[in-house]
Amino acid sequence: MTQHNPETEAVELMRDHENPHPMIGYLIGNRSLEITEVEIDKPATIERLEREYRASQFIRSWYMQPDLTPLDRSLAALYAPMHAVESVGNQFAKKIVTCFLETDVDTGLERFREISPNTTDEELALLINDEQFGYLHRSLNEHIEESQNDIEASVHESIKRIKRTDSYQFSSNTPRSLEKVLNKGMVISIDPANKDIIKEYGAVAGSGILPLTEYLKNERILGVSGFMGSKISLAVHDFMDHVWTFDMLQKTGLLEKFSGLFDSVGNPEMTDIFKREGEMVASIAFGVRYFQTMPSAFGPLVRSSRLEEMLDEYFVEGRLDAIHMDAYRTIKSLKKGSMEWQSLGFTFSNYITELDEQRRKFGTIKQRDNKTRKIIGELDPFDPDYLSFFIETHHQILSSKNKHRNDLFRFHILLEEYLSSYANGRIPVDQPLTLNLDELRAIDFKHTTLPHQRIQWKYRNYGFTATRDAII
Questions:
Q1: Is the pLDDT of residue 10 over 60?
Q2: For the chain, what is the HEC assignment?
Q3: pLDDT tens digits for 17-44?
Q4: Is it true that the peptide bond before 20 is cis, omega within 30 degrees of 0?
């Protein structure tokens, strides 16, 4: 379901293609089950989300002052009418966009002034004066009004796409079940149409510290399972956030433990781990990676303390069953302010934020009653079942016994070796790289050809492929 322009990354990573690989499974020949008509993804809701999305893009562009040269942008605080803001993250954008979309400018300004910053970028974004706020408020609303026809066309296309996505959710077809993906592995290749840029940046990277994958991470230079024009971020998302995480859930017994939850959304582990419903798993692992790029003072929309309070309330109300108690004990045992404590709140908030982008483009994850098989509504991330699953999955990803960081480190090194080998002329453009977890873990990485400083950089910046922003 975001980030990534970091803000939309999680969802863009959900499927960074116009032809929706692999989030949507409406491939030719797929069988799908008829879904009970439930008005969940209403056109008015999709239109609101589309307007908010376009507003966030407009506001980000305005804050970054794209017409300035890089030098002038850096010195904007000294010479320009206003400073430039490097990044407006997805969670912070949620706070300010509604202020600028407020019909009454004075009401919007009042709400804007009530927001407290947690990072330097947030502080800079809030430092605009009343006149600048009014100018941006007016410019944005004029832009939205002028874009209305385009917005309506986008909503129409989204509704059609959502219907196709819905038809696949409860399909019995199993093209990319966990078992099949683990057996076949994932194929990564070089997109011949964009091959030259790999060699160009290979020369820039040379034998330096910054990885070639860092230079290339925003370029569409890969084929991922046959889908060309993919970014490095998508390859990492598919392999680590989908394949690795589903495999970990199976080995730790969480898939079996929460089988009722997964059955209620169409069993992506048995059918297609990459479809829309697979993001209820992959977004957790993605958030863990993305958290590593956040400044230490970052304040998430939903803090871990609030999640703990919710489970306390559920416990008092008698809504926690045996299946929920491990998650309850986990969050009660976490040390306040620890890395896992901070990561949990951020990761959950990132998922909540990115859900709106998923709803806008691909629709909501529908949930059915496991007895009647009737659609009963949207999967609620605050429901005890999913919230408990989220907490336990997050805890297992960070557990030292599952070695998530180590396997991600292995994947980053192997992908760097692959692209560097092509850039240096050691392999042809049509030589693919087939990955599966067992083989990845069996590789002797002491035979790496990469500079040791570059390997250390990757180890210290293991979240670098989770964001479009440069990691320095």
A1: no
A2: CCCCCCCCHHHHHHCCCCCCCCCCCCCCCCCCCCCCCCCCCCHHHHHHHHHHHHHHHHHHHHHHCCCCCHHHHHCHHHHCCCCCCCCCCHHHHHHHHHHHHCCCHHHHHHHHHCCCCCCHHHHHHHCCCHHHHHHHHHHHHHHHHHCHHHHHHHHHHHHHHHHHHHHHHCCCCCCECHHHHHHHCEEEEECHHHHHHHHHHHHHHCCCCCCHHHHHCCCCCEEECCEEEECHHHHHHHHHHHHHHHHHHHHHCHHHHCHHHHHCCCCCCCCECCCHHHHHHHHHHHHHHHHCCCCCCCCCCCCHHHHHHHHHHHHHHCCCCHHHHHHHHHHHHCCCCCHHHHHHHHHHHHHHHHHHHHHHHCCCCEEECCCCCCEEEECCCCCHHHHHHHHHHHHHHHCHHHCHHHHHHHHHHHHHHHHHHHHCCCCCCCCCEEECHHHHHHCCHHHCCCCHHHHHHHHHCCCHHHCCCCCC
A3: 333 333 223 222 333 344 444 579 999 9
A4: no
Q: Under a CB-based contact definition with an 8 Å cutoff, are residues 369 and 264 in contact?
A: yes
Global pTM? 0.89
- Give the pLDDT mean for 133-152: 97
For residue range 233-290, list pLDDT tens digits in order.
Answer: 999 999 999 999 999 999 999 999 999 999 999 999 999 999 999 999 999 999 999 9
Q: Cα(362)–Cα(162) distance, rounded to whole angstroms?
A: 5
Give the pLDDT of residue 472.
63
Sequence-distant (≥ 6) Cβ neighbours of residue 389 within 8 angstroms: 254, 258, 261, 327
pLDDT of residue 330 exceeding 80, the answer is yes
The mean per-residue pLDDT over the stretch 447-456 comes to: 96
